[in-house]
Design brief:
- It is a single chain.
- The protein is an all-alpha fold.
- The mean pLDDT is about 75.
- The chain contains 5 helices and no strands.
- The protein has helices spanning about 5-30, 70-80, 90-95, 105-115, 135-139.
């Protein structure tokens, strides 16, 4: 089990890596696409690809640049993991679905995963995952 500090570091790295990775991908696409059609209303400098990347804006940073911006995500994962049958879910699988479009409380996330209605391919292939994912549907 990770310590609180280790969880903050992991989530911070995930958020930073996701942002940097999608930005780099968009820059590579922009630099390597021979023909890129843009709508008249979008300037080339607006990097339209960037608008499609996942956003994670539920955290806050402070003047000391501590890991506070990871805390809301760590809290949700900690709450989700209080349900022992769901501890097989890896942090990365959960983090993928805490972006702004899917952000929800730990209990709402737990209910969604238990229902089996979460269309998350990442919730497969892990031993013990069946005890949590879709468990309510099987009853």
């Amino acid at each position: 089990m990770m310590t609180q500090h280790e969880r903050q570091i992991f989530v911070s790295a995930y958020l930073d890596g996701t942002g940097a990775g999608t930005s780099d991908l968009c820059k590579d696409l922009e630099n390597n696409v021979v023909i890129l059609k843009m709508k008249d209303t979008v300037a080339p400098s607006d990097h339209p690809c960037i608008h499609f990347r996942p956003q994670f804006t539920h955290g806050k940073t402070d003047a000391l640049a501590t890991y506070n911006y990871a805390d809301p995500y760590v809290a949700i994962i900690d709450g989700f993991y209080k349900h022992s049958e769901c501890r097989a879910m890896p942090y990365t699988a959960i983090m993928q679905h805490l972006n702004d479009a899917e952000f929800k409380s730990s209990e709402d996330l737990y209910r969604l995963v238990r229902s089996g209605d979460a269309s998350w391919g990442a919730f497969s292939g892990f031993e013990g995952i069946e005890k949590c994912y879709g468990a309510d549907r099987k009853r």
